[in-house]
Amino acid sequence: MYMHILMILEEPNGKDFPLGLKQQPPVEAAEEKIYVDVGFWGGLVPENALNVSALDSLLKAGVLGLKSFMCPSGINDFPMTNSSHIKEGLHVLAKYKRPLLVHAEMQLDSEGYPKENDDINDARLYSTYLRTRPPSMEEAAIRELLEVTKHTRANGSAEGSHLHIVHLSDSRASLKLLKEAKSRGDSITVETCPHYLAFSAEEIQDGDTRFKCSPPIRDAANRENLWGALMEGQIDMLSSDHSPTIPELKLFGEGNFLKAWGGISSLQYVLPVTWSYGKKYGITLNQLASWWSERPAKLAGQELKGAIVSGNHADIVVWEPNAEFELDENHTAYHKNPSISAYMGTRLSGKVLATFVRGNLVYKEGEHAPAACGVPILAK
Question: Residues in domain Amidohydrolase-related (predicted)?
């Protein structure tokens, strides 16, 4: 089972940084320390977006593609890009036939929603955080992106490049725009995440900052629309948007949604979460494999991954779809800080029994491989 993971190195304090902005080569840092095959994505930032040689060096080093933010990322070393930067990045990527991943949120000056640094008395209310990142931010970013993705069409100036919208939350105007762009021939895909399919804003308690992420988890009606779009094929694939941190940065004592670290720790749970919440919509194992393996592998240019066929890498997960279990940080969670995950305490079905990477057994019934056997994946 190949899962699409945006690989950005994580520093001990919970901060992270994009490949190309620090001195230590990520490939060297990962060698002999990874238990699965790992691919790296380069960061597209204003500093290198207009520098063809800088982007060439990243792509020649083997990154699977590039990633950029259209809003502040929260990381000083990863500043936001605009459509001009993205256009230039796509033209360079066209030569390598690799994708650009974009966090599509753009703040509009005309909107009077509160800012994350404002002194607001009700910062413990999830509804306050929702107002800081309304659906219009996603819609505005996607509208601007579609002025650029027209160049990715057949015979366009950036033909060969591809734009991928990461962790879409807005199931209304944004999805409609993307559907229209695909029908015009733009090379564009979109993903959403399990937390948008599992949770709704109405269920989030005041001060429970485990649920803070960006874009935010929206209302129950939006969740239903996301499921419909996924089942109909408007949403192409799923990803975890796994964002680990340390408990202190989640500000559990304050419960301040405006200042707490944004991100949901989820990587271990994505298969059972998707399966458990998707059964009511009639999802199949084939769909699960497509959303989590086949399509992400294709996006990342991994021809030998994503499907169980002769000649492919033997990356296989063994699981029992009907087995039920409760997520417990003491027994069933293997993250470094499991208490920060929004999934703790939920009852799920679909228990992973074993995992193989290139035919090597790396996990079986609570036990992990004694030695790392994963390898860095480099694009060619």
Answer: 162-362
